[in-house]
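The instructor's notes for this session suggest beginning with a concrete chain rather than abstract definitions. Hand out the sequence below and ask the class to guess, before any prediction is shown, which regions might be ordered.
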Amino acid sequence: MSIGCGGLAFIIESLPTVAIDPTQTASPLPSPTETAAVPPTASPADTPTAAAPPSQTPLPTFTLTPAPTLEPQWYMQGPGEVLVPILLYHHIAVLQSENIYYISPDAFERQMNLLHEWGYTTISVELMVRAIKQGAELPSKPVIITFDDGSESIFTNALPIMQKYDFTGTVYIVYNFVGIRNYMNPDQIRGLYASGWEIGSHSLSHADLTERPDRQMDEIVESRRKLQSLLGVPISSFAYPFGAYDENSVYYARYAGYIAALGLGYESLQSNRNLFYLYRQAVKGSDDLRTFALLLP
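After discussion, reveal the predicted structure:
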């Protein structure tokens, strides 16, 4: 049983100062004649000396250690529906503006710490899709952490924080943003992949696909081909810019060979029915920790 500092102080104050040995027999009370004062002529040797202080019961000692971290339990889930919250981030940085998609590194770390403390384990989109389609072992509390656009702050700020908690993520790259100011270059993206992250496509130019039907072939299909050629890593899933999609978008996502596509939503139940519009919940800069916790099932 762990005892806080306040509880330990209370125990120390309430401990008796005198040890009581129940095996000893109490001494009889002295008679009145035995309590007479020592005569003035008594020698120094006859003068009573102060009694030795009674022995004290040694105080108990406590070792305050953190609770052991239990290994997550994995078990077979699917095929069919699986309960997996998918979180959506953009920039992990401080910005002096009202852009709601900038999360400060301090706030992001508090959120990752909460996930860790509550026993969540990160998984990839690929593993979740496998569970939906054919069944797969998943942790008891899985979560997918995704990042859209390819901000450089993902590599410089999000990666080290997530590594601290043994988390990995999935980043969706806009091909035309690679290497431009404030966005990751190819080596940084490959660095994420080497760290166990998953890389997906977020189109060529971040166009609203529902407003540019003439561009859907290039934005969805060509972006996968070009990213794989540039980075030399597999690109297996797609994220619709702005979460906007239509029937043609889904067609091209399937045609391109993606195993899934991600949009937006307010729930965590994923299945074959929404395999090409998986529900993601966006985390905003204005969210406090309580609001963040409400995104979790």
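Then share the key points. Residues 262 and 278 are 5 Å apart (CA to CA). The chain has a mean pLDDT of 83.
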